[in-house]
Design goal:
By secondary structure, the protein is of the alpha+beta class. It is built from 2 helices and 4 strands, in the order E-E-E-E-H-H.
Length: about 90
């Protein structure tokens, strides 16, 4: 590796998949505002909408994850176009 181009501030960070509440810890430099306690240790928390534990490619299950209502927003905006395309 080249010296001086990589950040020095790597630290353990907890990543939480909000669709299935799975939590894993990895090292990262990401800035967070939330924390979580795991086994008596406080970690910075990053919330993910999808991870390898909920993504259909890894799970083999077809599942719609819509935590932000994006599908509903899309359908309300473009329902006329979508219904015409189906015909």
């Amino acid at each position: 590796m080249k010296k001086g181009i990589h950040p020095e501030s790597y630290r353990p960070v907890a990543f939480k998949d909000v669709s299935n509440d799975d939590v894993f810890i990895s090292r990262s430099t990401i800035a967070t505002k939330e924390t979580i306690d795991i086994d008596g240790v406080t970690y910075p928390l990053v919330k993910l909408e999808i991870s390898n534990t909920s993504h259909p490619f890894y799970t083999g299950k077809s599942k719609l994850v819509d935590t932000a209502g994006r599908v509903d927003k899309f359908m309300s905006r473009y329902k006329d176009r979508v219904s015409k395309a189906k015909k």
